[in-house]
Amino acid sequence: MTRFSLLLIGIMVTGCQSSDAPESESPPEEWINWKISGNDNYSKSDLAVLKAVDYRYIPDRSQIFVSRSADGFGLNINDSGQSEQIISFINGSVTISTNETAPTQIMELPTPPMALSETQRLRINLENITHDEKRARVILYDDNAAALNTFDGLSFFNYDATGVINAAFEVDPEMPKIILDTERGLTKAYYRLGHAKFQIDDEKYKMPFYNSTNNAEDINYLFSGFLDETTGYESYGVGRYVDVQGFESFPPESVTIDFNYAYNPYCARSDAYNCPVIDYEIRAPMHYGESYSSDK
User: What is the pLDDT of residues 60-84, one digit of tens each?
Assistant: First the structure.
């Protein structure tokens, strides 16, 4: 569920300060590279966020049609009579039928980019809408997407070492099933694995962290989200995400949360994504990580 791989550094502090704190003289190279990779992820890769021009969810035992038009390919719920591919989702696997080849069954999702033309491609993944329902999700990418023309790069707060927090981790013994609402009116299924306990400006916090699995052997990162006093003014109005990783095994006794790597959900700049909403509030101005302005 993470947009970038969190690149942790060795600086650990126990609290945060306001944006008046002095900026680090030299931001870590890992953080600089993280910003570069973030911009590339939005505009340059084959599956760049801003290249996503259409998407469809396929419930079990349903299908969608990939049809050709004057503007290229498109995704349709109903057969337009010009469909060149039919994508079916049955019992957790995807079958693709074409006019020229026998049906191909795809068992492992997500798929690599699937070329439709020199400029358009598909990708299919599997999402847990609830813990009992999975849906296939088809996204159509186009190198000529209009959103690329107005993208002038992501924006970030200056790197500040006070944004690195060493927190005690308290595992949730039940690791309960959690259903999070999303920005697109659907839901996504997670497990709440525990809480990071830390302090900012004399206020104590117990921040929930999630993963898509509760199998300890498969847990190598934790994911959360937060609102803060910059939300809706200097950062994205629905909140930001932050990940932690680097622990040897689950559950760790402590985790390092580097808020300098906080990032906006893809929904901040694209309608083609379905982003969970986490309304955990930090009552302080978190001038770290990715910022946002409404004109982006």
Answer: 999 999 998 888 999 999 886 678 8
